[in-house]
Specification:
Three copies of one chain form a homotrimer. Chain A is of the alpha/beta class. Chain A has two domains: about 80 residues, 3-Layer(aba) Sandwich (Udp-n-acetylmuramoylalanyl-d-glutamate--2,6- Diaminopimelate Ligase, Chain: A, domain 1); about 170 residues, Hexapeptide repeat proteins (UDP N-Acetylglucosamine Acyltransferase, domain 1). In chain A, about 10% of the residues lie in helices and about 25% in strands. Chain A is built from three helices and 36 strands. Chain A has a twelve-stranded mixed sheet with strand order 6-8-10-13-16-21-24-27-30-33-35-36. In chain A, helix 1 links the parallel strand 3 and strand 4. The longest helix of chain A has 20 residues. The first copy, chain A, is flat, with a radius of gyration of 24 Å. Chains A and B meet through helix 2 and helix 3 of A and strand 18, strand 19 and helix 3 of B.
């Protein structure tokens, strides 16, 4: 089965579903999922015809619901929902208002929106979609099957295949590089590029600066949420996950599968090991070892952070009593 | 009287003012206000002809100033300033460079700027203003009297009347939804919409993601400042106020009249009661009861926060002395 | 010498370099620099032909490298790199798709990109560059030699000479001004402008609101990074440096040469003295004296902050041991 789930009750095998839907609004023809304990009550009252659920929570299902037992119900649902809702097909062609430099390479199977500007020497892969008003600068390269939304600005970058850039993303502008001087800052020419791997996703209004001398690098399958700032020379490994409004200062390097929660901030020139987890709102000023979880500002290992929170709370309450 | 204020001195009744202005620059023909104790000195030296002021601070006025006693001088000033400076009238019509799909509905009394793109099935209300370069996606609906600035991107949304969207706002893009997997994240198709109530105001470069299955909802009269991130499935009630750079993670629900200070961050799947106040920079990881005020990261009730700050400061100073 | 550095070894005087490059990738014909102790090992192994380096670290150089001893190697490198990479020359002219109001002033030596919109009464200085899709509102003024990137929106502003605005910058929109009211917020008409001094640099997707009654002011040579929010009536002095995602609330005033680290947040109506330093992630709720350094949230002087961090850590560890 596509989703890797097991049907609990053979009698339900003939059941078919017509759509996917959330717990609260799903009806008898819909497939849903339960992933978060917070929603067990909604699950118990759901009218959904079928649901992905873990073994552990399956007995909370209402009578008559077909249960698809999955180790990871959310992932199973994701795969099923992808089958129900494949990405919409391209409407290949170029809007007559798109301005494409004669030296740019844009295959005929791309979909180029209104008022798009594609400058000299840019090269797009097959089946790329480019939304209205987007500007693709000189020499920019895009792999196959990229989806670039509207009002995006790209320059000084090489982008892999199947990359998704949401509206308002800015890639490749000069970063924040200057040497302070009494007569005013002396700007450092920014000479590097941004290299983005395959299957990367970057959220709306996020910004990625070009490298200063090195390149800024975003590894394959990395997911970046909205309003995230990536400074010059930053290197992100494979499969990193950066939630909304994260900021990473110049020249910091992340290994693979690093996660950073919303509004986390990383100082410059740090090394973050693979699999490290940086809590939401953390303010990181030191290197982090592979696999470590850090919280707080200044960020410390999670065990120490929990004790700090507990001791502070205890002291505050004692003071209250005294 | 328009502003609900009372003139203190009948002798000033014949005074007329020609404009509104700040304390420091107002002259004898200007109307100003005093709202913040910080500016009492500037008030005492102001050359303004008239001022809205509270009863309490009225005796700090310079001689000769006509005093308009108001319970809320800022609100009284707001109403007066609105009368002096009504919103500029529309210049109805469509720029010849605007591209409007033949199946879109755009009343003749709308003002559509240069290079605007309005896609299939979109429906605008009367007297909407759409700034240059803005992209309105398929099936998007706008109520009457909306003011959409330049360089805005709208998709998958239904927007009420009198909504103001500042430049660079992104509404309706797919949110941050995927299930982690060793082979790379499995993306969840995002199927919901964004529903925005009447009289909502959203600041420059803010982002509101479409729901994943449910809709993302912004209640009427809610005010959102610049660079704010609203995740998928978030529900904001009526009259909420979100200051700059606030981030709200997916599926969190706010009641009515909730306030969040600048750079506050809310984790996902929380419930925030009506009238709750979330301090600037707070990092919220738990539900908040109606009317409660929380501060800090991790956020705690304000009373406890104040004690935490005090006890920490006391210990740090003691250490200093020892 | 252009960079103010001294050649250590007269035998190297005849050496010439062809390019500038980072430590790790520089070859025998390249000039590089060492500025950060973290990179001493990379320096020792660098194949660069020449390097700017401080007296103190010069003996770590590999044999054969020509050493240019500089008090500030980064600044010396900056000057050298500027000489190697001057800003690209303008391609003066107007894209045929640019829409320029007949009452706007745009000198012939400007470079105006595709689909730019310049509205009534706007005035550009000489040799300004305006990127594709940018919208310049009515009466906006730009000094000479400004570089405005693509997808920028300007209104209600007066901008000095040599100002650089990166893509997605929003200047001059109405700020967050309203008086709360049970029937919904009463908006304050925003009547001021944004005044930007010479040599200012503003990063991608940053936002600067127009003043409410006063003007919002950004002093000359101030550097602002990406995704920064500047509220209405804020005044920044000369040479301030604001790192990524900083937020400054309405009516706060900064003196000259104030520095704020990434994600710092400043409450409204504060006064920050010249030369003050606000740490990354600081949450500032009080005035700061000239030259003072503050950290934490709520922000305190750095000495007190360090003690707070130390005492909390000690108590948390003691608890652990007990």
């Amino acid at each position: 089965m596509l989703s890797g789930a097991t049907l609990r009750d053979a009698a339900s095998a003939a059941r078919s579903v017509a759509d996917v839907a959330p717990l609260e609004t799903a009806g008898p023809d819909d497939l849903t999922f339960l992933d978060n304990r917070k929603y067990v009550d909604a699950f118990a009252q759901s009218r959904a015809g079928a649901a992905f659920v873990s073994e552990r929570l399956a007995d909370r299902a209402p009578p008559g619901m077909a249960l698809l037992i999955a180790r990871d119900p959310y992932k199973a649902y994701a795969r099923a929902a992808q089958a129900f809702y494949p990405a919409p097909p391209l409407a290949s062609g170029r809007a007559p208002t798109a301005i494409i430099d004669s030296t740019a390479t844009v295959p005929d199977d791309c979909e180029i929106g209104h008022y798009v500007v594609i400058e000299a020497g840019a090269r797009l892969g097959h089946r790329c979609q480019v939304g209205a008003q987007t500007v693709i600068g000189p020499q920019v390269e895009l792999g196959d099957d990229c989806r670039i939304a509207a009002n995006v600005t790209l320059s000084h970058c090489v982008i892999g295949a199947r990359v998704v850039l949401h509206s308002g993303v800015r890639i490749g502008q000069a970063g924040f590089g200057f040497a302070p001087d009494a007569a005013g800052p002396v700007k450092i020419p920014q000479l590097g590029r941004v290299i983005i791997g395959d299957d990367v996703d970057i959220g709306a209004n996020s910004t990625v600066d070009r490298g200063s001398g090195h390149d800024t690098v975003i590894g394959p399958s990395t997911m970046i949420d909205n309003l995230v700032q990536i400074g010059h020379n930053v290197v992100l490994g494979r499969g990193c996950i950066l939630a909304g409004q994260v900021g990473i200062s110049g020249s910091t390097k992340l290994g693979d599968f690093v996660m950073a929660g919303g509004q986390a901030g990383l100082a410059g020139h740090l090394n973050i090991g693979s699999g490290a987890r940086i809590a939401a709102k953390a303010g990181l000023m030191r290197d982090v070892a592979a696999g470590e979880t850090v919280c707080g500002s200044p960020a410390v290992p999670i065990g120490l952070f929990m004790k700090q929170v507990a001791v502070l709370q205890r002291l505050a309450k004692k003071r209250d009593g005294s």
